Amino acid sequence: MSVSIRSYAKINIGLRIGPRRADGFHDLRTMYTTIALHDRVTVDADIGRSGIEIRCSDPKVPCDSTNTCYKAAELVLKALDLRARVTITIEKSLPVQGGLGAASGNAVATIFALEKALGKSVTASPRVEIAATVGSDLNLFLYGGLTLGTGRGEEVWPLPDLLSIPMVIVTPEVGVSTPAAFKAWDTLTHPGGSATISEFNHLVYEWLSASGVPALSGDRAETLLLDLVRTGISNDFERVVFPEIPVLREVKCALEREGAAYASLSGSGSTLYGLFGSVETAAAAAERLNAAGMKAIATRTLPREEYWREMFQ
């Protein structure tokens, strides 16, 4: 049976880096939200045979066992105690390693599509374990909408969801190494420990409480952006990535000049985004940024209900 599914992207709204843990990872606090941009993943499964094949025309995407989709499919088959010949075709629209969680979203899309193709489902707890085993930010795609990420980012807690917010995405053609960014962070003299993590928790609570979530409508969507700016929620990676790759700071400034109420790096980059008060202003900003030589796309955040409703369309 063949099943096709939308594999959505995410952005980080704020990201706070805590101290390095004994396992080598850093404690993190971040808010994730899914957005409407997506790849498409198609899974074909033939029970009784064996083997996993990855197909993708993008040369940047590995088509071997290192692909997150391969790992996810392997773990689903093991959890269901099944043998099957699985072919996973990835149609890319999202940038590879751009900070939008494309590979993670592809892996979770594979889980959902493979379950449907097999006619069998992994129960909730093993599914969460599979996602966490494959990568740090997969679990957010098990929920969709606005979520709080803790631990190394794999512990995810759904937050009261928001209205869809117009936005513009810009992904400069530069690479950002996440391990190198963490290493650079460790060399900074910065406030660490639980204090910064606790501060982020308070900022998130302040933002969502002030905005009247979930009862947002009309002018409250505009107020949401103003409240977000007022709280000062930011991405710690900007402190180490911007000095090394100045073009990223320039893109953020360009988004702000074009009218973004809030602009930020997503994850460790290289994607930046700006949140806008209306679809019209976001579309106009994207047009001007493209005219200036930047690859800009107007899109929007994707609430949880819509995420689930449109996934298999």
List the helices and strands and how they pair.
Blueprint: E1 2-20, E2 26-47, E3 51-56, H1 68-80, E4 84-91, H2 102-118, H3 124-134, E5 146-150, E6 155-158, E7 166-170, H4 178-187, H5 194-210, H6 220-231, H7 238-244, H8 246-257, E8 262-265, E9 272-275, H9 279-291, E10 296-300, H10 304-310
- Radius of gyration, taken over Cα atoms and rounded to an integer in Å: 19 Å
Largest sheet: 6 strands, mixed
**Total count of domains:** 2
Question: What is the CATH topology descriptor of the largest domain?
Answer: Ribosomal Protein S5, domain 2
Elements, N to C (H/E): EEEHEHHEEEHHHHHEEHEH
Strand segment tally: 10
Structural class: alpha+beta
Q: What is the CATH C-level name of the largest domain?
A: Alpha Beta
